[in-house]
């Protein structure tokens, strides 16, 4: 698909630093979108190909300000200010290579889980003949960021919907002894999904969704016995269930595992 980018030279009286617009329809709710805008923490994890580090200086319901390191090694101070009344947020480059640049994002809700976004890029000091090229580069970067964000927002919405529908009944599940090559293996019990794997000769079971914001924990268990969430990089010890890096959350209730000769039995007793 061609890049969703539009450019028109600034008309007299318009902002002369406007280098173009990116427009896209997203299959997400306003709630998920605001959550995503305020979520500074996911930048170097979900968007690991664009950013390598972030150090938050301030954050709140208003937005956030942070030192951000881009994948090319350059450091900037960015600020995102959310204006709910106007359904928009403005990201400003306060320090760094593109100091003074502003990115204005407006959202137009068109259905309960659908919106159009219009993102305007303003970059000062760009010569007339280079504006379109600079705007196109911004649009290409935003296209990649939104591809990644849409995956996270849609997956989170699906997990929230599934949780609301889930039944908390007692259940016992007996499996033929899994082949280790198939691990980690996803299983479903009482309407919840878990991952079954092994660490240090033991069977381990843990939620398939991260206790932070329901990101997928479907990756391999590391040699240190951890799983890493790709959304914000939180790590969890698969034996203790504690978060070892990133946050204060931990795994909730997990099924019990009993290993027989040929089978594995998992039991879930709903907490009442
Ligand atoms: S959802 Fe945030 S670290 Fe997993
Ligand atoms: Fe994002």
Quick rundown:
The protein has helices at residues 30-38, 43-46, 131-165, and strands at 5-6, 18-26, 51-60, 63-70, 75-83, 88-95, 102-111, 114-122, 171-176, 185-189, 192-199, 202-207, 226-228, 235-237, 243-245, 256-259, 263-268.
Describe this structure in words.
By secondary structure, the chain is of the alpha+beta class. It has 2 domains: 5-164, Alpha-D-Glucose-1,6-Bisphosphate, Chain A, domain 4; 171-268, Rieske [2Fe-2S] iron-sulphur domain (Rieske Iron-sulfur Protein). It has helices at 30-38, 43-46, 131-165, and strands spanning 5-6, 18-26, 51-60, 63-70, 75-83, 88-95, 102-111, 114-122, 171-176, 185-189, 192-199, 202-207, 226-228, 235-237, 243-245, 256-259, 263-268. The strands form 4 sheets. It has an 8-stranded antiparallel sheet with strand order 1-2-8-7-6-5-4-3. It is elongated, with a radius of gyration of 23 Å. The structure holds FE2/S2 (inorganic) cluster (FES) and fe (ii) ion.
Task: Provide the fold topology.
Layout: E1 5-6, E2 18-26, H1 30-38, H2 43-46, E3 51-60, E4 63-70, E5 75-83, E6 88-95, E7 102-111, E8 114-122, H3 131-165, E9 171-176, E10 185-189, E11 192-199, E12 202-207, E13 226-228, E14 235-237, E15 243-245, E16 256-259, E17 263-268
Bound molecules: FE2/S2 (inorganic) cluster (FES) and fe (ii) ion.
